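Reviewers of the previous submission asked for a worked example of the structure-prediction workflow described in the proposal, so we include one complete record here. The input consisted solely of the amino acid sequence. No template or homolog information was supplied to the procedure at any stage.
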Amino acid sequence: MTTPTTSPSVPEGWREDNLAMWNERVPVHVAGEYYDLDGFRARPDVLRDFETAEVGDVTGKSLLHLQCHIGTDTLSWLRRGAARVVGLDFSAPAVEAARALAADLGHGPERAAFVTGDVYDAAGAVPEPSYDIVYTGLGALCWLPDIRRWAETAASLVAPGGFLYLAEFHPLTESLDDATGTRIVRDYFRRDAAVWDEPGTYADPGAATVHNRSVEWQHTLGDVVSALAATGLRIEFLHEHDVSLFPRFENFEVRDGYHRFPADHPRIPLIYSLKATKG
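From that input alone, the workflow returned the following structure tokens.
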């Protein structure tokens, strides 16, 4: 991973650049081995063990997945027993791919609905006003410049007695060197956007791509928790995990289905998860 250039907090054209980048990568993800959609159709469940343990029984629940991409996590919750799932993403090709995947699994829109929309405008885009569970998965928050606005939107969609569940890559990892994860090389508290210009995708680094400019933001753990607490949601827990889903550092090893540091490497949090309830 190269070091990005820094820009003003919200560079002009950031959303258009990110949308073009994601739209172009959808067919790569649909066809590639990383998501393995043929395997998913045979066994539609890609949720991580800590997510299913922390979310608990979803039987009979309605679930909204914000920034759902091609819907694999969304549809996994349906297999786990959710009564209805709704996925939202700003990429129309991603939403079409998710709808096609749902149809392949025999789910109509009454059980699995996917809609195109900006996460900040989710309240006006999704079919119901609130959901038992609002879920946001790994690798989502870095695409959003305003974490407070995200928290307000997400909280507004949680039904009374329901909860928001977030699993996300730990922001500490973005401050460490890419080779060993032992040296601090980037400012943890930086607020400016990081502008990248890189071909390929995490799912296929060698893919030939044209729309390679993307814009991301760092949100500290304190920023995320404080933003959610300010909405009135009650933070039930904040957990940190020493596993990752991809080889974030060059010295990672794969053990027990996760990417990890070598056994003799000092452990640091690589993913965090939290649950926040609405009274």
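The longest strand covers residues 158-169. We consider this example representative of the routine output the project will generate in years two and three.
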